Amino acid sequence: MTGVPMGAELNPGPSEFAELTTAFGELAGLIVPPGGTLTPSRLVNAAQRAAPNVEGAALTVLPPRSRPRSIAATGALPRRADELQYSIGEGPCLDAAEGDDLVRVDDLAADPRWPAFATAVVAELGVRSIISVRLRLESDLRAALNLYATVPGALTDVDRVNAAIFGSFVALALDAERAREEASNLQLALQTNRQIGIAIGILMGRDLITAEHAFRELREVSQATNRKLRDVAREVIETGELPHAPDQRPG
């Protein structure tokens, strides 16, 4: 079997869809408590609670030029199952994150796609059924939501629908976190530039030097003391004096 496009061959019956709808209705108030924030971790936990056959859920992320890692997991089983895939270099969560929309495993012991991973995870954890769904993100980060069970054939078409729906929400939460992080970094950069500008002004006025000369002094002290430039600038603002390295003395 290969990766299955999301939405293909989904045939849950009306009663199963009704149960799924009820589950999502009950979970709506649990995922985000009053005043809370929709986070990937809460959604991963909710994805497991929404499907009684799922014994563990985890979230794989593949940063550019970096090793894959799990940023959320509902317990030791899904976290270890993820880690085995990372260390061995194969598995459904990696296939899903790297391109397949949805990867479903009905019995890992009889599936030939990942022989090394299958042998290891069945022997160590008893995992037999897996669903991994790719998250569609705005950033260059790649990710997959992974559902695990120890019973062969335990994860049904309803679980596939559940994984696809929760995967969409997890993707939104990851994009939101990235946007908040970028906004925070921008605010920090603006604050740092403002502090450096004030410190340069203080040194210019005190020593009657140019802005270029003042900035060079700040940078030299930063390098000599192994401190961040913004920290040196903050000390200049607070004391009116340029810090000196331990082996330096004021002229």
From TrEMBL:
PROSITE patterns, per database record: ANTAR
For this entry, the protein name equals GAF and ANTAR domain-containing protein
Q: Does the record carry RNA-binding as a key word?
A: no
Q: Which organism is it from?
A: Microlunatus ginsengisoli
Q: Name one Pfam family in it.
A: ANTAR
Keyword annotations: Kinase, Transcription, Transcription regulation, Transferase
Q: Does the keyword Methyltransferase apply?
A: no
Ranges for domain ANTAR come to 176-237
Q: Which residues form the signal peptide?
A: none
